[in-house]
Every structure is written in structure tokens, then in C-alpha cells.
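Sample intake sheet
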Amino acid sequence: QEQLVESGGGLVQAGGSLRLSCTASERTFKLYNMGWFRQAPGKEREFAAAITQSGSSKYYSDSVKGRFTVSRDNGKNTMYLQMNSLKPEDTAVYYCNALRGWPRDAFDAWGQGTLVTVSS
């Protein structure tokens, strides 16, 4: 089973920035488009951002567009999510996953996620 490991979360003030990282197997990075998802307290998990295997195309939810940037380094088997101008409503556990359908259809297995808390 694929191991997805998210890191980089923490507590930040509104308006601040964080960069999340996601590592997975070489096979996953060689084969799949990837995405970031998030789950706020008491809510369902939702899509945030996606990037194609080559990194040439990206797609964002309306709620993060213009503030978040997704990127990947296939040589390091790592995907990133640069989050700027953070808002309290960005508070959530953030997950990464490989995509079986573009841009937001993820596989069923999930990692532990990384918690982002934005204070007002």
C-alpha cells in the first residue's frame, strides 16, 4: 500500500504563510498526477489543488486560487503546497494523494495528514 507522508503544518497568524510537503514512492511520482485535499473540523474532505505528473498543468479550487501554489519535484518524490495570505477558514488537516481522475478524483488510501491552524 502506498505511503503518503505530509509535513509542514503548524500554527500561523492570519496573513501568514506555510509550505507543506508530501512524499510518496518513486513509482507514484513517475505515474500519477497528484493533489492536495483538506478537511476542516466538522466538515467533509475537500479538494484544494492538483498538479499533473510533469508539473506542466495545475488546477485550484476557487477558495485557494491566487493564494496557494502547488509544485512538485519528481527527482525528490516530493510535492509542495505553498500557502500565502492564510485565513482562519484555511484551518484544516491537509492531505496529499495520487489522482485516478483529473483533477480531484483521488485514490482511496490516505496518509495521516498535517494540521494547519490559522489564528485570527
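Comment: The mean pLDDT is 96. The two ends are 39 Å apart (CA to CA).
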